[in-house]
Task: structure prediction
Amino acid sequence: MIGYEIFVRSFADSNDDGIGDFKGIAQKVDYFKMLGVDLIWLTPHFKSPSYHGYDIIDYFDTNVSFGTLADFRDMVDKLHANGIKIVIDLPFNHVSDRHPWFKAAMNGEKPYVDYFLWAQPHFNLKEKRHWDEELLWHTRNGKTYYGVFGGSSPDLNYENPEVVQKSLEIVEFWLKQGVDGFRFDAAKHIYDYDIKEGKFRYDHEKNVAYWQLVMDRARQIKGEDVFAVTEVWDDPEIVDRYAKTIGCSFNFYFTEAIRESMQHGAVYKIVDCFQRTLTKKPYLPSNFTGNHDMHRLAQLLPHEEQRKVFFGLLMTTPGVPFIYYGDELGMKGQYDSTFTEDVIEPFPWYASLSGEGQAFWKAVRFNRAFTGASVEEHLNREDSLLKEVINWTKFRKENDWLTNAWVEHVTHNTFTIAYTVTDGDNGFRVYVNIAGHHETFEGVSLKAYEVKVL
Result:
């Protein structure tokens, strides 16, 4: 199984309004099949006031810019008919401040007041997020409420059983619309405020217990075939706790370690990552090229040969690999937490950025016309990154046992890493040279930027 993250607004436009939509995605099935992906992850497609969609107004309806609920179901049917599964993004930690629940709560209406967390005398209302110094508490019309991700996204109060039940109803609703599973956004933030102590604190035990409830409900509806992957951006040992319950977790350390190692010219961080995250585990890791919350792969690895090495590592390691849309083309983009649009630019189908299906909802700064980062240009170039990625996805499908494999016998020198991948019955050894010069390691000769499977 090979995953592909799509920012819906930027991918493919079916009705010439410049905005990507469900019908546009359905019309690009041939591209998914050529690329070799068979699992699509859609970023939030719900009714929302923002361009990114992570602040939801209605969990039971679609963003009208993307299409109707019927259009969504048609897209799901088209993907399924072509052997492609679909998972949707579920941001359960918070809602939009325009959500009816929050509006009612601000008006003092029961039961909705108890759907949110309000200031108490012993709370430190000046407390800030530990990662960027933004305030946790927000005041409006004389009322102060908790919102880890900003004042426009008030946190839901999962100490309230009614909120827990509402979230389970949302899971059930979308599974019955045909989706195959979920990406659980900000999974460690469901319980992240200690009411007794009046301060921010992750309660991993309560979080994991909540996700167990969610997975139990999902499996009651969909069976064991339901696929779920969690976002827990933390130390590998913390990730393990969530992944054991949910079944799969994005391996942020993988992405960070390879990017940093190739920038700095030494494999030591890759070695540490493989030894901590890719050994035999009771869940599937999900290694990935990037996502909407980080710099684009090509922004940090400017040479295409480096990115080919990244994809070689991605496709020869265990679990469920994910490609962020456009990384197979070398799309660039600088991430800024206050301006995230540069990493979600329109997917370039054509060299001119103009043609049937081309989304163009925003101006582009990084992936301009005729700069080489389009499907058209890659297909017309023999040694392109896209063609290399297609070769690797073919390799991956020929070795589908890799999903349930693990890594062992990791060895290295400064520029080369070697590792054995096995599921107990199948296996091979991989040699990777991340340097721009020839290397010989364990008797294996490696050209610059070469991945060799033996």
Remarks:
- The longest strand covers residues 406-412.
